[in-house]
């Protein structure tokens, strides 16, 4: 369903990573590797990293977000991870930038370009 609708799967479950690496599904994956944190702290973390996440998904299919960084594991034309530090957390009441329309379309995978 996520692939069909062009959505990003956000998960803490590394089974999705195995599926991505072995079968290229889901086509876009964000692994949350922040350890055991509460929902409010997770929300602050994602909001602080949102500009980097949006930029990364313009060219990447698989990223990982940790407590202090966003790691782009798989990017078209790149075979090694790229790490970006997470900036200071903006005010949690500022959620206007969370609209789904701000996400770039899914990049074309190598298998779909053949």
Descriptive notes:
- This protein has 114 residues and is an alpha/beta fold.
- The chain is built from three helices and five strands; from the N terminus they run H-E-H-E-H-E-E-E.
- Strands 1-2-3-4-5 form a five-stranded mixed sheet, sandwiched between helices.
- The longest helix has 19 residues, at 39-57.
- It starts with a helix and ends in a 29-residue tail after the last strand.
Briefly say what this structure is.
With 114 residues, the chain is an alpha/beta fold. The chain has helices at 2-5, 15-23, 39-57; strands spanning 9-11, 29-32, 60-65, 69-75, 82-85.
Main sheet strand line-up:
1-2-3-4-5
> Which residues sit in consecutive blocks of at least 5 with pLDDT less than 50?
89-103
Estimate the global geometry from the Cα principal axes.
globular
Kindly state the percentage of residues in helix: 25-40%
Structural class: alpha/beta
What distinguishing features does this structure have?
single chain, 114 residues, alpha/beta, 5-stranded mixed β-sheet, 5 strands, globular
